[in-house]
């Protein structure tokens, strides 16, 4: 099962990169970035509805809404900001640089979030190996950007 989970995560990462190209191409064709973002959001809804029979869909009790931290409601807005950044920047930067920057920024942020156990993540110390890994990612993006 862990191998299947890792495979799905790898596929999601690959799809994220291909999505940047598809969204950039759609924006070039339509010339309306907000319309492209709305189209992406509509497609997201369709995917979620198609997945619902397999993962479940229900309405939580009202008491559960009160338990949600204020910042947890901002995840969708963060996703929207990412999609807009993708639409505006991926075509200008190129796939490798855009993906490298976003993945590296995500990895560095993840190490910090894990280290402190922030925003619902379990605490995992940022030891020398993790810090070195972040440094190597930054060096890799620098090399990709230069060449």
Automatic annotation (TrEMBL):
> Coiled coil: which residue ranges?
none
Q: Where is the signal peptide?
A: 1-22
The regions listed as transmembrane in this protein's record are 36-59, 71-90, 96-117, 129-146
In the UniProt record, which is one GO cellular component term?
plasma membrane
Q: Which domain of life is it from?
A: Bacteria
What is any Pfam family matched here? Answer: DMT_YdcZ
Identify the InterPro entries for this entry. Answer: YdcZ
Keywords for the protein's UniProt record, in alphabetical order: Membrane, Signal, Transmembrane, Transmembrane helix
Keyword Transmembrane helix present in the record's keywords: the answer is yes
Keyword presence, Ribosomal protein: no
Protein name per UniProt: DMT family transporter
